[in-house]
Amino acid sequence: MSNKFDIIVIGAGPAGYVAAIRAAQLGFNTACIDDWTDAEGKAAPGGTCLNVGCIPSKALLDSSEKYAQASHEFADHGISTGKLSVDVKKMIARKDAIVKQLTGGVAGLFKANKITSIHGRGKLLQNKVVEVTDNAGNVSSYSAENIILATGSKPIDIPPAPVDNKLILDNAGALDISAIPKKLGVIGAGVIGLELGSVWSRLGSEVTIFEAAPDFLPPVDKQISREMFKVLTKKQGLDIKLGAMVSATKATKSSVTVSYNDKDGEQTAKFDKLIVAVGRKANVDGIVDDTVGLKFDDRGRIDVDDQCKTNVSGVYAIGDAVKGPMLAHKGSEEGVMVAEVIAGQHTKLNHDVIPWVIYTHPEIAWVGKNEEQCKEEGIPYKVGFFPFAANGRALAMNEKNGRVKMIAHKETDEVIGVHILGVSASELLAEAVLAMEFKASSEDIARTIHGHPTLNEAFHEAALAVDKRAIHKAN
Ligand code: FAD
Ligand code: NAD
Fewer CB atoms < 10 Å away: N or C end of the chain? Predict the structure, then answer.
């Protein structure tokens, strides 16, 4: 094997592996270096997303949702099941099998695209040389015309709750709990806290979430986050403590006691497991030699321009390691863009139209601006919404919680934000993303025929409601 490539990608998460595949499609001799090792000691390309993020969390969310439905909803449909039980080990094994299938799939795609896959830890040196240290400590060197850094992110640690992945868990540990904890504590009511808190709550854990911020889900449209807070706390029984700052934890052999401060003063609570999910930070330690002179931003991320170029010529950076939302699809699209930019194309990414989803039940999904942002930025806007309680398909599915909310520019009618709380919001949002990418107006959507009965009729009705002419609700 030659040690010289057109492009070397460091990191095979959704940003890096997609960049490598697109680069190979464009005819570049490409190598991808990744250090993820699975429980059997084998290379497992796919990064955080495939190994301990998007995919395994959704596998457990789906299993636990099925259990929750069987426990609480089947009876409404006239189905009785007798006593239900959960085999957590089997649930985890199913999740692991999906991860294995997908990481194996990435390895297969590398082969099919003739990408050289190198397992080990890469470090960028001067003159676009990359030094790789394998698991056994052997060091080898490679070089390329262009380097793409895609080293991802890692969980933020907080001193009061040091992760040991026995009692105090990060996202990886939280996806591998082998028995349902009777009492589960979670620090952080962000995306991971709510998704993984939901998994274990549905399976029967009493879940308490400590959130330092006074508001619930600040990035989400207030009307949606308020409605979600009610569903999670009143209907699903999660105890979400806002404005609660954890000051210390004390772990014994089988439990962990959390000390926290909230509006009622200093208090303690005891749990069988505690998940720490207070955000993630760029994973950049030791990835580049100082002599390269790579610039980082004020938040420790690799500094890049809008085409993901760093300050070093021929060196690009993408995904969680750079600015922007830490989302798999954002990293992947940056990967495609960078490969095409290297090929001389003029690809750009539309940062205004990046979909967000929180996979609770019901799901929250949004794209574009929320009402609060429109007010802050002085954008004139009009709003239309439609509740799933008035949508026939949602009622047939016993899924009447939530709404579709559409925000359009008051003067041009262009859709500038769509916010959905409801079953399958993640899938429904795709229509909004496409509409916004094509700069559709609410009128365009109002004039588009939607199938009946479907959940996406709620999206159609929200567009009609922007102009106060929804059919199936009073305007
Ligand atoms: P990563 O996926 O972190 O991949 C980076 C890779 O680089 C890793 O394999 C790492 O081992 C490797 N690496 C790092 N340094 C080196 C080095 N020096 N040499 C060699 N290899 C190196 N996002 C969504 O869009 N949807 C979701 O539903 C979702 N769910 C999530 C659930 C959880 C629990 C978590 C933790 C995250 C979730 N995310 C989700 C976020 C998503 O996982 C990340 O945005 C995404 O993985 C970032 O991709 P990346 O390629 O930039 O980095
Ligand atoms: P997050 O930023 O979504 O939430 C962290 C929460 O912890 C915030 O609400 C913050 O106020 C709170 N917090 C911070 N410090 C605290 C402290 N000391 N005590 C109590 N609360 C504290 O971060 P996350 O949930 O860890 O997820 C990290 C990132 O991973 C997300 O931002 C997202 O980009 C990505 N992710 C995406 C998905 C998805 O797309 N569905 C799912 C999981 C993760």
Answer: N
Do 285 and 274 reside in the same domain of the chain?
Answer: no
Residue 211 alpha carbon to ligand 2 centre in Å:
10
Domain that holds residue 228: 168-278
Residue 221 shares a structural domain with residue 364: no
- With a 6 A CB cut-off, is 319 part of the ligand 2 pocket? no
Active site residue 119: no
Question: Is-cis flag, bond preceding 218, omega within 30?
Answer: no
pTM above 0.90, yes or no: yes
Is residue 271, in this structure, part of any structural domain at all? yes
CB 210 within 8 A of CB 241: yes
pLDDT at 1 exceeding the cut of 70: no
Q: What is the pLDDT of residues 338-356, one digit of tens each?
A: 999 999 999 999 999 999 9
pLDDT tens digits along 420-433 = 999 999 999 999 99
Q: Which of 171, 192, 275 has most ligand 2 atoms within 8 Å of CB, for mutation?
A: 192
Tokens of 191: 């995306």
The number of beta carbons lying within 10 Å of the beta carbon of residue 333 is 20
Q: Are 303 and 365 in the same domain?
A: no
State whether 294 and 415 are in the same domain.
no
Q: Evaluate whether residue 123 is within a structural domain.
A: yes
Q: What mean pLDDT value characterizes the chain? A: 97
Ligand 2 atom nearest 171 alpha carbon: 26
Give per-residue pLDDT as tens, 103-129: 999 999 999 999 999 999 999 999 999
Ligand (nearest to CA of 282): 1
Q: Tell me which of 175, 278, 332 to substitute to probe ligand 2's pocket, judged by most ligand atoms within 8 Å of the beta carbon.
A: 278
